[in-house]
Design brief:
Two copies of one chain form a homodimer. In chain A, about 35% of the residues lie in helices and about 20% in strands. Chain A is of the alpha+beta class. The longest helix of chain A is centred in the last third of the chain and has 22 residues. The first copy, chain A, is elongated. Chain A starts with 7 loop residues before the first helix and ends with a strand. Chains A and B meet through strand 9, helix 8, strand 10, strand 11 and strand 12 of A and strand 9, helix 8, strand 10, strand 11 and strand 12 of B.
Chain lengths: ~425, ~425
């Protein structure tokens, strides 16, 4: 191990070429919502690269694309070791999120091919449909169908934020494929991704060996009080939905601080009604985003929130209702794979640490059917879902080299 | 005193007839923004009633309408005792706010005429242009011009929320009059108005003798932090503008509770950006409405708010800027007039209390040039600026009777 090395510039150039499709003017970012014309053109480009590498390309019923590579000494009866990610973006996205994982997979295959190396297991590189969920909910839709956790028919009938039906859009761009869903279960799944957070950059560490994905709990809270004149209504007679929203918002911070560890809590959305300077708000709706790597502690945080809402609704004489918008249990990745990633990074001389992913990824869905794990590289300023998203050539190359050697380790290198 | 009594049903019918202009379907409310076609028709109706009562009607340069009544024994060289209010409404308004004060003034004149009573001073009933400020800012615009606190030219050039120029709209409805502004300084000004708050109803009291109007301080606060992923950004690395908005909102309540007395504080408007469930808000803008009857204490509350903003901006590493949107000093009404209103209510057998107005009224502007005061009657549920605004026939009649006898007291009853 250590001799083989990917071609960082070639990977960098492919990232750049892919980013030109749906490029956001005057930025290095891209806008390629799932199954739009731009997504279609991006798929065509990546498929053409797969074919250049003589991979067998299949497209399944939800548009997931998988390219499989066989070396001269590969046993094609074995399950493939799979890598990949997604190439759709949020409306105002960056060029690394998802794309890096897919193109690094191709770079791994090209390096192996050019160096005359082979592997016992086939190597598969996939990109899954609609990971971002920005046009069609839920996020990670393609991988959910791939593992059989979401019914194909249901997924095809999904209506997007623009009113279009997923199945129609898939047909329109020519990616309603024939491969079966659920798809082939891989031997293992390893995804390279940018961190999308500030931890690696802040600590000056190059590689994250991701051992878990935080559980996510999204709650929409609606507070109903009474609209009143801000001047003529004594404080004691108010039923102020806006004030209660403020109390809940600050309490969410308290919950996160009190629990500590990986617990985070965010109120990112607040809407008051009528939202006027001199009217006590009659209604407020807000969202609470709670995350933890432990399902038990995540439930505890949800329960703290619910208790607080009960107490303040009584105290302030308002009605509070809440609705779960999304709920994912935490995911633990495969210990052996995490260890492989750490030791690979050590061997290549890259500083590394175990860490948690705060965001959702296809790998957490694949983890339901096979040993899975992720490799993180730093995000400048922690920025993501933003055209300014940036990871340096050196960091991208480091991540792709760890991916290369981790895959060869699992797939069985044979020279 | 006590024999003379207004005709409650006649007043009630006029309130109803006026409310038909701009009536909001399926409610008892009206929509008559200042200087719209509906306002023009309402003005025509009220002017026709003034003429029926043989009042001398003048219209000034900003469209304020004043009808002056002389009895057989009136000394026309004396300054008139004035009453009145406004007949414009907010977009979705009630039938009592403003209208009651104007039509009760006409009812007072009609009662005096029919009963063969006279007064030493002339009696004037006025309605001022654009009191609500809902189409053309500032509110109380007409009375500000009447007392010379706002320049006529400036007022005529005001651009409304719909982009129309006030002077053009005034011409269009035929109310660009020739009477001079500033107008004649009255001997005294007494305004009957609904409370627009819950105090009288809650305490079961019929008449409020308004002794002061709260000072008003409106501040717009803008918080700039940093947009971040709600999952991947540790709590300690956040610069969360949404959280800081919540802290300020709850602190405003604390300021009000700590100061106590007439102090109120409201955060009625909060806007987060980008306002998404899974993104830490980069920016928040919000308004703070602070009111107190004491200028000194109002300044204290403003200073508490400013100090808190400084502290939290440092603690949370966000930038906070603030801008004054409106600032009115508190107004104290005339002691002798307040006493006259209280004793009149006592003599008529109506329960009454001294109180503060939390809302702005034309009387507080007239107070700059002559002794002024107000009479409040209850608002059902404290509701106002709402089609459901309601005050009963009995309460309306009580208020108009107090107005009648208070005016006669000041104007000098001569039978």
């Amino acid at each position: 191990m250590g001799q083989l090395s990917i071609n960082g510039n070639r990977l960098w150039d492919r990232l750049d070429e892919l980013a030109q499709i749906g490029a956001i003017p005057e930025t290095i970012g891209s806008s390629r919502l799932a199954l739009t014309k731009e997504d279609g053109r991006a798929r065509d480009l990546v498929v053409s690269w797969m074919k250049d590498l003589e991979m067998d390309v299949t497209v399944d019923g939800i548009g997931n694309v998988v390219g499989v590579w066989h070396g001269p000494k590969t046993d094609t009866a074995l399950r493939p070791v799979m890598t990949g990610s997604h190439i759709d973006t949020v409306r105002s996205g960056g060029r690394f999120d998802g794309n890096l994982g897919v193109l690094a997979g191709l770079e791994v295959v090209q390096t192996i091919t050019e160096m005359g190396v082979s592997s016992r297991h086939p190597i598969a590189v996939g990109f899954f449909t609609g990971e971002e969920g920005a046009r069609f909910a839920p996020d990670m839709l393609g991988s959910l169908v791939y593992v059989g956790a979401l019914d194909l028919e249901t997924a095809l009938n999904t209506v997007g934020v623009d009113g279009e039906v997923l199945g129609d859009e898939l047909e329109r761009i020519g990616y309603a494929g024939r491969a079966m869903c659920p798809g082939v279960i891989p031997e293992a799944f390893i995804e390279l991704h940018i961190e999308q957070g500030p931890v690696l950059e802040t600590e000056g560490i190059t590689i994250g060996a991701v051992e878990s994905v935080q559980g996510i709990s999204w709650t929409e809270i609606t507070i109903e009080g009474q609209s009143n004149h801000a001047g003529t209504t004594p404080m004691s007679m108010r039923r102020d939905a806006g004030y209660v929203a403020g109390e809940i918002s600050t309490h969410v911070r308290q919950i996160a601080n009190q629990i500590g560890g990986t617990q985070v809590g965010t109120v990112g959305k607040i809407d008051l009604h009528p939202n006027l300077v001199n009217v006590v708000a009659s209604k407020a709706s807000m969202t609470v985003d709670l995350r933890n790597t432990s399902e038990m502690i995540l439930r505890e945080s949800e329960s703290y929130l619910a208790t607080f809402c009960e107490e303040i609704s009584e105290k302030e004489n308002v009605t509070i209702s809440s609705k779960s918008l999304a709920r994912f249990e935490p995911v633990e990745f495969d210990n052996k794979l995490i260890e492989t990633i750490s030791s690979t990074a050590d061997n290549l001389g890259f500083s590394n640490r175990r860490m948690t992913s705060g965001a959702g990824h296809d790998a957490q869905i694949l983890a339901r059917v096979c040993p899975s794990a992720m490799i993180f590289v730093p995000s400048k300023g922690g920025l993501s879902h933003n055209p300014e998203e940036y990871t340096s050539l050196e960091e991208v190359s480091a991540g792709a080299n760890v991916l290369l050697h981790a895959i060869l380790n699992v797939a069985g290198e044979c020279s």
